Amino acid sequence: MGNMVNVKIDGRDVQVEEGLNLIEAAEKAGVHIPNLCYIKGMKGIGACRLCLVELEGGRAPIIACNTRVKEGMSVLTDTEKVKEVRKFVIDLILSMHPLDCMTCTKAGVCNLQRYAYDFELKESNFTRKKFGYPIDESNPFIKRDPDYCVLCGQCIRVCQAQDTNVLEFEGRGVGAKVVTAKDLPLQESGCTFCGSCVDACPVNALLEADRWRKGREWEYEKTSSVCLSCGSGCSITVSTKDGEVVKINAGAPEGAAERYICAIGRFGFDSLYGDTRLSSPMKREGGVLKETSWEDALGTVAEKLKSAGAGASFISTANILNEDALLLKKLAADVVKTKDYDSSATLYSDYDALTAGSADLENADLFILVGTSPNQWTRVLPALDAVIRKRMNNAGAKLIVINSGDPKIASKATAVLKGDEAKMLEELAQAMISKGVKAPKEMVEALASVDPSDEAMNAADVFKDADSPVILAAPSLYKAASNLSLIKAEAVSVPLEANAKGVVLMGLMTEGKKFREIISSSSKVFYAVGEVPVSKRPETDFLVVQASHMTDLAKEADIVLPSASPLESDGTVVDYLGRLKEVKRAAMPVGESRTNAEIFIALAKAMGETLKMPKETEIKKALKGKAKVSFSPFKKDKDLDVDVEKFTEDINASTINGSRLLWLKETEKGVAA
Amino acid sequence: MNEAEKKDETPKKDMKDVFAAVENLKCAIQRSQTFVEEFLSEPMCGKCHPCALGSYEALVRLKKIAAGVGSRADVDAIARIADQMLEGSRCKKGKDTAKFIIEALHTDTFSEHLEGRCRDRECPSYLIYRVIPDKCVMCGLCQEACRYNAILGEKKTSYRSGYRPFEIRQKRCVKCGECVAACPYGAIEIIDLKVRDEVKV
To answer: What is the biggest distance separating any 2 CA atoms in chain A, rounded to whole angstroms?
Structure first.
């Protein structure tokens, strides 16, 4: 926390952090300064002029969004003078805004409505201006209705801050309009449909396309949870009405760089109610999967597992919850008594990479990406890509990319070290040492013969100047990359699944065969949990698939157990930055589906054993098994290379194919062709 | 930056040009209207709401007054716009425009227009062109000068009587002033619409 300064806001003495602007400072004092164009976490642009305030002893009013607090400042936020200007601006905007609050979807959360209420404006005192702009409804995600636009520019700036750069202003003043380049539809403008602009829009100009007559904000129940679609594990806010998910918004605090979710996280929820969703257990009878009861399904599986014993193998995705993972491990190891249980996390990571390190991106001033290629456009760790770009654009953070390929984000980098990552890391470390930075003895010795290139020397300058650098490494390179953290910086690995770290910390890591071996060898019972990246039936006598969708693998199963989706489950996960995050149930499981944890407990019971729902203390205890970083050779674990793009798509296949994201997939293919 | 963009940037109208555009105008309404029109046409950057939206609304109201259909409410609105633009605008350009309007509001011109009179005879809607029969020698020069065929009448030739006198058809007249310039005898006068109405009464 920074230094505190004493300021007076409307006569009230408050202590606030140095460097805050007046809007934020006033908020700490419980005073709201009206604004339309201010975006928390970004520099104020002073366009709407609603945030004008007066300083005691000052001459003219000043804009609060772009003025930082100073010791002894006395701010008056509510003088007649500034109230008149605010009312005037709202009055003008109202003259060009449809007055249909009674049917408007944004009623209740619309800032224009709020301020019109505050300033007692039933309608505009100025000449009514009608534009009749066409509505862009050509995609199933984002509806653009320029007639409602208040020209605050927030959508344009959030889009630019994350470098997607789709929206821009055309014209100025009354006739101005937010457009795409050449006024093309969004899908032809490089839009990723992340929907950040929808979150930013203070009115009804940008809206989720399917919101008409789906209720308004005050009818929704809000649940804070986590999206488990990829390794980013973004915070989300789920809105439900009558038990059904209506929309999902970014859930990180306002102003945080992490306040971002991608199209999969925002719009993938349709798949909850999609055609492939499983709603009751199924059993293969006469070659065909037929619906059956839980009792029958669990009884059958229990019997098979009992007789299989050590011959049973379990695999799971790494986007199940900590509680699920803990129970699954107990079920496999203690109840079924097999050693072969593993998660897909081991396809791309070893144990250490997932259990060491933690990092804070919000204050990072340098990112060092080692072998990982986040990309919003291909939706590989899109949130990480967006966070880095936002920190760079909004706060001047820097980026060093160490990669053997040409990741898109490299074009944004302050320094790029292209080549074998392990070698590049050696050079960077040696460059740091040669610049007089202290390093452990064994590292200095190991690098003695390394001669750093000019690029490495330049990168080292950037690294040396950084105050809070963060190293983000592909798990296969984590050991090598974390050596750098012995010199400086925090280092974390970035797995491809949301709870890879939690799953491993909970002990769901094989004592016998590893994931690849399990699927290539034969077993008596093969039990798959979640959307595992396996599409063909492995060699097994009996295949059990526990999933929320009819996956390709489920189609070949002998028993299918319908599981709840993460949006329908309660529990915790550990994200890539090492934080414990809470996943909360936003909707009840569809049909007869049950949460993973419930299924494991019921299955143990059917086998005559008792498994209990893990308590918070048990989870926290498991989290303490974190590894410490120590010097290890600069080497890449080549066994852990996977096609990240394909992997990400595979683990989300049901979500994508069962929702409007399928339209996007097809359209993107079409545009690319 | 490519060539086209460069070209776009160079010949820009600035506030000097806006002031120059109103230099020869006298009527405060005409001056304000032209000023705001010129301001909106280019120097207005659109970066802040009070100025971008306010000056547009001011123009709407000024046009109403210039057209003779304004009311006290329009003048009040213009005054409010100018005051708030002065207070709230981001830069000098907006504030200058506000100041210009405020200055204009200080004259009696706005009130006079509401009463139906443009003292400086620059607001066409307030004026009427009329042939003074006593001065007209029926030379027909005005008719030749009029591009809008707004002047009726028969040119005088020797040894004829029963001429149709010269008169101006108000429906066609655009009040361009060409006829006044063409008449060597000063036989065309410009009078206030209001005065004529009073005469009629």
So the answer is: 88
